[in-house]
Design goal:
By secondary structure, the chain is of the alpha+beta class. It is built from 14 helices and 17 strands. The two termini are 31 Å apart. The relative contact order is 0.14.
Length: 516
């Protein structure tokens, strides 16, 4: 799924049209300068020379995202990953020459930025081709003052993110610099998801900052995408992939064929809507519940989402596909590539343990934690073999087997619970007064029915749900997001909701939206 944190790109267009006209247009054509409402732009050619060239199959992570891109095209700009790096906040001033030299070093350091897709003549087979040398076009925008520079940087982020990559011919990174006078204030990176996942994007931001400030980012990564691909397609990789897919087959057989089997409404236009809730109360509650039950905050959120999906659709067993970073190996910590793949989280909501009182959401957390660990361990496999498993089960059962229910915790690290006592029910109730909700985006096509993303915004958690409105109308999207907040805040307040009441919670919240 696409990355959507605060500094990341949205799908909207930015400023600065290629069709601008006016007194400066002739000069722009002659010099490469572009004039928007306030900022002038030019293109700087950044030449690079790496250590080697080569060719290899796609890594399993690349193959997985390539399959998703093809299913989502022509709206696959959804997968672009964008970052804005402020450079005027501290340290020595960055000059244009220094910043372009840092970009050169960044591309030379990380082979994924010099790697393009290589397609067979019929377009059915894909490989990766690493180039040793080349030229990266970098947009240089001139702003009048820091405030304009900030606006310009985010407008560039939007504009560079708004179009799909030409995967076989374009370098998988688009870069821009914003300068006030002779000082570069911001760098903008937009990445093709074949080249990096969210963690890889943060590695690039870190390394670019170090290259600008110090001229060095330290030792190079321990491995490369080409070497990883060759390892995965070897005997050891195939054995590991087979073990992972055995988990998937067992999970598929234990769960419903899909979480959302039947449309419930006429689809809206555009068909896919994104709802987003920003909640300081949820941030505090997740940390408190995780600490109290000795699980991760991500497990708390994943369990809440799974419980709501299962209850809303009348299933006892939930099947959710968490996006797994696959960064446990030391060699992969600083590797810029797409390592993320789907895991399969299976939760039987009828196994909440024996208790004289009705089981609650928190009773599921120990089971859910173990299920999440199993999902994470089985998230490295060949997507072609995964496709074959799905087709075999379709033939066997006569129905498509796919949860169409995804969960992506995009936080690189979890904030621990703050020191001191857990928040009281009164404190959480007061914080809920700051909860904000909206529908910030729509799009025509996404290859899923329920895609939940977790990010942070200041002291709040931001949870967004992109859903197919034929299966989850807007009022249901809203109900699921408020339902996650209610389930977890209630648990942190000492009054966990019985599982038998979860469907009523969804229906009541949806009705409130309709009445509003």
């Amino acid at each position: 799924m696409a990355e959507t944190a605060v500094e990341e790109a949205g799908a909207g267009g930015g400023s600065g049209s290629a069709e601008e006209t006016g007194p400066g247009s002739a000069l722009a054509e002659e010099t490469g300068l572009r004039y928007g409402s306030a900022s002038a732009e030019e293109t700087v050619a950044v030449e690079f020379r790496g250590d080697r060239s080569g060719r290899a199959p796609l890594t399993w992570g690349q193959r997985a995202i390539w399959h998703a891109i093809r299913r989502t095209a022509p709206n696959d700009h959804y997968f672009n990953i964008g970052r804005v790096l402020p450079l005027a906040d501290r340290g020595r001033p960055a000059t244009v020459a220094g910043a372009t030299a840092a970009l050169t070093a960044l591309v030379e350091r990380h082979e994924s930025l010099r790697t393009r897709l290589e397609l067979s003549a019929d377009g059915t087979e894909a490989a990766q081709a690493l180039a040793a040398t080349g030229t990266l076009p970098v947009t240089l925008a001139r702003a009048q003052d820091p405030a304009e520079a900030e606006r310009t940087a985010h407008a560039l982020l939007d504009r560079l993110s708004a179009t799909r990559f030409a995967y076989a011919s374009e370098w998988p990174v688009r870069a821009a610099l914003v300068a006030v006078g002779d000082r570069v204030t911001h760098a903008v990176l937009v990445l093709c998801h074949l080249a990096a996942d969210g963690h890889g994007a943060e590695v690039l931001v870190r390394d670019l900052r170090l290259l600008v400030r110090r001229g060095s980012a330290g030792r190079p990564p321990a491995t490369t995408p080409l070497d990883l691909a060759r390892e995965q397609h070897g005997e050891t990789g195939r054995r590991r992939g087979a073990a992972a897919l055995a988990h998937w087959e067992a999970g598929y057989r234990a769960a419903p064929a899909t979480m959302f089997p039947d449309p419930v409404a006429a689809p809206r236009a555009p068909r896919f809507w994104t709802g987003r809730i920003v909640s300081p109360a949820l941030a505090r509650a997740v940390a408190a519940v995780a600490a109290a039950h000795r699980v991760s905050g991500s497990t708390v959120l994943l369990t809440a989402a799974a419980v709501l999906v299962a209850a809303g659709q009348g299933h006892r067993t939930a099947a959710v596909m968490p996006i797994v970073g696959n960064r446990t190996s030391t060699a992969h910590r600083d590797l810029v590539t797409t390592l993320s793949q789907d895991g399969l989280f299976i939760l039987d909501t009828g196994t909440a343990g024996a208790s004289p009182s009705p089981p609650t959401f928190t009773d599921l957390l120990p089971t859910a934690y173990r299920a999440a660990l199993r999902a994470y361990r089985a998230a490295v496999y060949d997507p072609a073999e995964w496709d074959a498993l799905g087709e075999r089960l379709r033939t066997e059962t006569g129905a498509e087997v796919h949860p169409y229910c995804c969960f992506n915790d995009m936080r690189l690290v979890e904030r621990p619970a703050p020191p001191g006592p857990a928040p009281t029910a009164a404190e959480l109730a007061e914080l809920r007064g700051r909860t904000a909700f909206g529908f910030p985006a729509t799009q025509e096509r996404v290859a899923c029915r329920y895609c939940l993303h977790i990010t942070e915004e200041g002291d709040a958690l931001a949870v967004s749900l992109t859903a197919d409105t034929a299966y989850l109308p807007p009022e249901t999207i809203r109900a699921h997001l408020y339902g996650i907040e209610e389930l977890i805040v209630a648990a942190a307040s000492g009054r966990p909701l019985p599982l038998t009441g979860v469907r009523d919670l969804l229906e009541t919240t949806a009705e409130e939206e309709v009445r509003a």
